[in-house]
């Protein structure tokens, strides 16, 4: 897909090396179709890695996409240079008067804190509230999904006895359009210390798209189709969990090796990627869905969202 991003973004050279099709601003300006405008709120410490992972997934579509990155201002970013943040990231004040076709809210390594104890919680709440009127569709990932479920629906998170770590299967429920083409059972990376209290899910407001008998729901969507919650990390690279495991080992943590990840569960035999195809398919389906329902004029999104909330349409 012709993805339009800043030419000197570090992710560009990596993606071009993978033959991901990118176009420059001059060529994009002469295309007749309107690009989709996506905003990525990147809460992960290593922002460049997350940029590459997400851009890799949203690039697999015939649609042209303009991508903006958003940073939290009420938090000190220690793992990404100030130069990179100033050059490639916007602040909420710069976007709050605009509309976007899609928003992606990433995970964050703060899940063992109460939501209200996270130093940027109020800013995140403001962004999530803004997204309900100014964005056609929102993806929430891992902790971002837990935060969204808590804020919008009052779904509490629960701590696990040990880190949920590895590749876990899940069963598709029904035939929702976002899971079109999915196998009945598919896999996704998980790396978290908390989950959600499934007993608090209101079936009148949320639909479970997939679940696992041991770890519960993994994909959920609001009944109006506006908010998608992904409790795992489809965006993860093949090596991401291995890097996390080696990091935890170096820190002296008692993290067990990620399950269903290494060949025959042996780190010496390499990694078996079980989730790549469904990761691309999920994001392809989401982009197609956004393209189908978003208005041509971005400034019509707030009115569309007001009608959506008034009607209370179900998916």
TrEMBL record:
Pathway named in the protein's UniProt entry: Amino-acid biosynthesis; L-methionine biosynthesis via de novo pathway; O-acetyl-L-homoserine from L-homoserine: step 1/1
Catalysis performed (reactions): L-homoserine + acetyl-CoA = O-acetyl-L-homoserine + CoA
One cellular component (GO) term of this entry: cytoplasm
Spans traversing the lipid bilayer: none
An example Gene Ontology molecular-function term: homoserine O-succinyltransferase activity
GO terms of biological process kind: L-methionine biosynthetic process from homoserine via O-succinyl-L-homoserine and cystathionine
Annotated site residues (Important for substrate specificity) in this chain: 191
Annotated site (Important for acyl-CoA specificity): 111
Main localisation: cytoplasm
UniProt-listed Enzyme Commission number(s): 2.3.1.31
Family listed: Belongs to the MetA family.
Protein name: Homoserine O-acetyltransferase
